[in-house]
């Protein structure tokens, strides 16, 4: 057999019958307690995700031990010249996810460059119901929660959201962020125990969160019609979600809520100052707390490149104002990745460290 691409070879051998598989199909590996996911895609790339951290994409190759029906995939993080390898050991053997009766065709052990080790199962997306493709990989916004007025949550950036991807669910529940694991069995969604942040919020947010988390548990029947997702618990009224519009950087004024100070910490803004960003036609501009600034930027999917940054040269009074400006503008030039969820912008460096967070300005 001729040498296929690394990914095609991996999937080709992992699923039987071999003749039914097409080159370039994906493999999705995942685990629970703790929740993690490793998503293989075309071109020898694999994206590793864990709750509440920026996903890291690796590029690598695999080797195959045919008598043992095992493969080892090794790759380095894209954009990082130094650092170790992610190694995924994949074996053709029936695997239970521990959350349902579903049996998966591959067991997985994943070793990260920092020494962390994860274990779980792998599945081929085509082996799941066609509806799974529609529910996964997009963000759903809650529009109906029986007995509660979602308008009390406080406007942009506070909507309840949920996102399902490769066995990992995450979202915002009205006050806190949550994450956990899930599986799909025909038209049923089975959720594992959810974890989350522990902030306290005003009454409306906590009331919505409590009701939503109570409903988003166990096994729910799901249905998708157009851009509407319905999740129906075993007992109780259904939850209704609408597909959240595709996120865009441009056309929005972003107000910074935290930024990297260059000393391995993300800090809030100095009291009385406002840091902003506006992206338009290849230029990002805004206020850096004292001066205004401008820089060119380019995007490629979720990748972003900013710089060099130029700013006006005013000197402002106030403790920490000028230091904040220097740190913020320096942080901007380190940006490599961006995501938007629930109208919140999250920007990271190539090493996974956060550059900044920002919310849509309502002014």
Describe the structure.
The protein is mostly beta strands. It has three domains: 6-124; 131-243, Lipocalin, CATH 2.40.128; 253-360, Lipocalin, CATH 2.40.128.270. It has four helices and 26 strands. The chain has helices at 6-14, 130-135, 203-215, 321-332; strands at residues 28-31, 36-41, 45-49, 56-65, 70-77, 86-96, 103-111, 117-123, 139-144, 161-165, 168-172, 177-185, 188-191, 195-196, 219-225, 228-233, 239-243, 253-260, 266-267, 276-280, 283-287, 292-300, 303-311, 337-341, 344-348, 354-360. Strands 18, 19, 20, 21, 22, 23, 24, 25 and 26 form a nine-stranded antiparallel β-sheet that branches. It has an eight-stranded antiparallel β-barrel with strand order 1-2-3-4-5-6-7-8. Strands 9-10-11-12-13-15-16-17 form an eight-stranded antiparallel barrel. A hairpin with a 4-residue loop joins β4 and β5. The radius of gyration is 22 Å and the shape is globular.
Short note summarizing the structure:
The protein has 363 residues and is mainly beta.
Report how far the terminal alpha carbons are from each other.
62 Å
Number of helices, where a helix is a run of at least 4 consecutive DSSP H or I residues: 4
Oligomeric status of the shown chains?
Answer: single chain
Arithmetic mean pLDDT: 82
Q: How much is the radius of gyration in Å?
A: 22 Å
Structural class: mainly beta
- The sequence of SSEs as H and E is HEEEEEEEEHEEEEEEHEEEEEEEEEHEEE
Strand content: over 45%
Most strands sheet: 9 strands, antiparallel
User: What best-fitting shape do the alpha-carbon axes yield?
Assistant: globular
Pick out the low-confidence regions. Answer: 1-25
Percent range of helical residues:
10-25%
Tell me the domain tally.
Answer: 3
Number of strands: 26
């Amino acid at each position: 057999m001729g040498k296929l691409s690394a990914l095609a070879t991996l999937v080709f051998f992992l699923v039987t019958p071999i003749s039914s598989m097409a080159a370039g199909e994906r493999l999705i590996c995942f685990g629970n307690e703790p929740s993690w996911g490793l998503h293989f895609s075309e071109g020898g790339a694999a994206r590793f995700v864990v709750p509440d951290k920026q996903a890291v994409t690796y590029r690598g190759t695999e080797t195959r031990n045919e008598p043992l029906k095992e493969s080892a995939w090794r790759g380095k993080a894209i954009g990082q010249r130094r650092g170790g390898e992610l190694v995924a050991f994949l074996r053709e053997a029936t695997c239970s996810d521990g959350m349902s009766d579903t049996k998966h065709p591959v067991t997985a052990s994943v070793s990260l460059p920092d020494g962390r080790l994860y274990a779980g199962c792998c599945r081929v997306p085509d082996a799941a119901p066609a509806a799974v493709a529609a529910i996964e990989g997009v963000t759903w916004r809650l529009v109906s929660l029986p007995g509660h007025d979602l308008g009390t949550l406080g406007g942009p950036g506070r909507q309840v959201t949920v996102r399902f991807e490769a066995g990992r669910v995450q979202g915002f529940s009205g006050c806190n962020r949550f994450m956990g694991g899930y599986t799909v069995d025909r038209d049923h969604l089975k959720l594992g125990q959810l974890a989350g942040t522990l902030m306290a919020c005003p009454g409306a947010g906590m009331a919505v969160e409590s009701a939503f988390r109570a409903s988003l548990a166990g096994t729910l029947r799901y249905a998708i019609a157009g851009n509407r997702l319905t999740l129906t618990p075993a007992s109780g009224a259904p939850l209704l979600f609408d597909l959240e519009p595709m996120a865009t950087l441009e056309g929005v004024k972003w107000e910074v809520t935290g930024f990297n100070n260059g000393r391995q910490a993300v800090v809030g803004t100095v009291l009385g100052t406002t840091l902003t960003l506006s992206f338009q036609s290849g230029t990002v501009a805004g206020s850096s707390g004292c001066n205004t600034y401008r820089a060119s930027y380019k995007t490629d999917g979720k990748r972003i490149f900013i710089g060099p940054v130029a700013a006006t040269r005013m000197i402002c009074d106030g403790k920490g104002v000028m230091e904040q400006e220097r740190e913020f503008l320096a942080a901007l030039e380190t940006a490599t990745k961006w995501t938007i969820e629930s109208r919140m912008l999250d920007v990271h460096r190539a090493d996974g460290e956060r550059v900044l967070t920002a919310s849509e300005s309502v002014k």
